[in-house]
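User: Working on a comparison across species. This one is Catabolite control protein A from Peribacillus loiseleuriae. Can you predict its structure so I can line it up against the others?
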Amino acid sequence: MATIKDVAKQAGVSVATVSRVLNDNGYVHGNTRKLVIEAIQQLSYKPNEVARSLFKKKSRLIGLLLPDIRNPFFPELARGIEDEIQEQGYQLIIGNIDEKYPKEMDYIQTFQQNNVTGIITATNLTGRSHYDDLSSPVVFLDRTFNDHPSVFADGIEGGRMAASELVKRGSKRITILKGPAQLQTAQDRFNGAIAWLRAEKVDFSVIETSSFSFSDAEMWAKELFEKYPDTDGILASNDVVAAAVLHEALRLGKAIPEDLQLIGFDDIPLSRLLFPPLSTIRQPAYDMGKEAAKLLIRLINKETHFEKNIRMPVMFIERQTTRKVEENG
Ligand code: RIB
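Assistant: Here's the predicted structure for Catabolite control protein A from Peribacillus loiseleuriae:
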């Protein structure tokens, strides 16, 4: 594999000149630059990224921290980020922080050791200051921090939307699976739903939950039907939990949506493949990722005068776990 010395020899210049061309740093005469570029192409030379990042003090890497890579919502965020940053010549490195502070700190340190140029984080721990003194810009995504650059979906509107769609279709004995108390995303959608239900004087019950994971979702689903067997409308904290509720409802022999309606939250790709396909509130995860990447690149490029807190709209996706409005009469 060709080295920077081979390029210098081929072009008839010093290694320092080749380095200035590679890092676009310092003056190089036009003809000399042309000779160096031709030598790079002739030798198919690939710069050593680690060496380059040490010189530049910044790499072409962007770090992404996700709370649980097993939840299908987060890969949608990551894909939107990656598609956007690659167009700008950056590459993504992902850390799965398992919603644990020590693991999150380890990844932040790893990102800094690799001279990442910026970080996008969907941390659970927005209240802590562990992002305040980093050398590279940070964008909070989904789990956000109001006085930091953030991209998030309108959870309050999503909760209101889910509650009104359920009642519009005839549900009267409503149960809400409240998501993890420490997550603003979960609290926003819960508060949006109960504010609407209270305003409309519609009774509801609540099942407290402490995670969004597949492993716990089955437990919440069983608890729900043990406590509220006659419920006729369920608002799930996310699609993973909704899938577990659907599974348990069908196991108990309930007719969906005739006996029981169900609305999820996220609209992960799996939701349309469930049987019956899940009605849910779509968060534009892919576009949220793209917007977070655009915001981070503006910060990296030290642009000014742009929106740093981006709230994105959600929408109701009607499938077959809710009745058609006309059916409700
Ligand atoms: O399903 C994962 C949940 O955690 C999503 O609703 C998303 O908003 C994140 O906060």
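For your comparison, note: The domain at 4-47 is CATH 1.10.260.40 (434 Repressor (Amino-terminal Domain)).

User: Helpful, thanks.
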